[in-house]
């Protein structure tokens, strides 16, 4: 027995009575909240379209609260029973067999429910029946804890069938007329409710523009593209986006670089870059005859003699091939001389 404490009947009995009152208050509080949850679920099912997935989540919380209230009522009965049999507990060295499950259930529930009085009750039973008995009750050895209380306070989520049953009952009570959009399969009845995938969430709910609105002919911005997609097969009157024609590149002529004959440039020049043309030699018209001291006969004979002299390769004095008067003879090239030179160049 501990030095500064131990089993005391005068401490156990008031704690049991206070626990009964605490269970009653907690049950009434949860029951009021459950009625509000039921109204919220009915409102979700009555919307168009029904928010079925959100209603299922709230129904799961409703089921958990319902199970908790049921467990509170069972634990409340256990506390009342132990309070009435307190003398039997006080005068027994070991836990009586007829209340073994009741005492073990109270010890196990003290760490699950939010009732502080059960913690003090557990301490008194630990002082009375020992730490080994307390450990057996906490681990539920041999199933000594009440099965119904253990299942109602379990952390396992409810089955999908139970959730759907709650939704159908709420729909019938509030005359909503809801039917499940996705029916349950046979293999999913005993399994927990699947996570939401968003099939009950409407598209573009914030802006109010549903897919039906902008598919009915509302203008949509066109995007440039060089590939024209095949128009989808939709309903008659549906909007089909028209994409602009692809841009075509216009060839721009490249400016040519003029060819130069400068030897300092490194540009290679081929023979095709130049076209050899005949030189355009300007032949002036025949000059007017200038007066001479002699007659025309002398002039013609002089021209004939000069032609014979040049054909023979001679260069008479005073008649050189140059147009200037380098020999100081006073002679000058005539039109006939120039014509003869041009004929020789053409050969």
UniProtKB/TrEMBL annotation:
**Compositional bias segments (type: Low complexity):** 293-304
What Pfam families does the record tag this protein with? Ist1 (PF03398)
Q: Which InterPro entries match?
A: Ist1, IST1-like
| GO terms, biological process | protein transport
Region called Disordered, residue ranges: 281-335
Homology family = Belongs to the IST1 family.
Spell out the protein name for this chain.
Answer: Vacuolar protein sorting-associated protein IST1
């Amino acid at each position: 027995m501990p030095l500064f404490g131990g089993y005391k009947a005068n401490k156990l009995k008031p704690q049991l009575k206070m626990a009964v009152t605490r269970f009653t208050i907690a049950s009434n509080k949860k029951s009021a909240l459950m009625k509000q949850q039921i109204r919220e679920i009915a409102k979700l099912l009555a919307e168009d379209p029904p928010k079925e997935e959100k209603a299922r989540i709230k129904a799961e919380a409703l089921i958990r609260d319902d199970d908790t209230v049921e467990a509170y009522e069972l634990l409340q009965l256990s506390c009342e029973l132990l309070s009435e049999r307190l003398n039997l507990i006080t005068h027994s060295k070991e836990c009586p067999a007829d209340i073994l499950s009741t005492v073990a259930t109270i010890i196990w529930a003290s760490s699950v429910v939010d009732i502080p009085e059960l913690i003090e009750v557990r301490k008194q039973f630990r002082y009375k029946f020992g730490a080994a008995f307390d450990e057996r009750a906490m681990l539920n050895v041999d199933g000594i804890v009440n099965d119904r209380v253990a299942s109602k306070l379990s952390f396992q989520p409810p089955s999908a069938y139970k959730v759907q049953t709650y939704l159908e009952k709420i729909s019938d009570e509030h005359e909503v007329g809801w039917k499940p959009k996705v029916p349950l399969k046979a293999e999913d009845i005993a399994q927990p409710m699947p996570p939401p995938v968003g099939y009950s969430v409407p598209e573009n709910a914030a802006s109010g523009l549903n897919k039906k609105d902008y598919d009915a002919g509302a203008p949509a911005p066109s995007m440039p593209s060089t590939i024209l997609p095949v128009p989808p097969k939709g309903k008659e009157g549906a909007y089909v986006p028209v994409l602009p024609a692809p841009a075509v590149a216009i060839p721009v002529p490249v400016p040519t670089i003029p060819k130069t004959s400068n030897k300092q440039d490194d540009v290679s020049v081929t023979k095709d870059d130049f076209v050899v043309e005949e030189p355009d030699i300007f032949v002036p018209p025949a000059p007017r005859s200038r007066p001479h001291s002699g007659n025309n006969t002398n002039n013609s004979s002089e021209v004939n003699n000069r032609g014979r002299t040049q054909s023979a390769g001679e260069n008479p004095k005073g008649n050189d091939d140059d147009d200037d008067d380098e020999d100081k003879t006073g002679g000058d090239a005539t039109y006939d001389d120039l014509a003869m030179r041009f004929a020789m160049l053409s050969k």
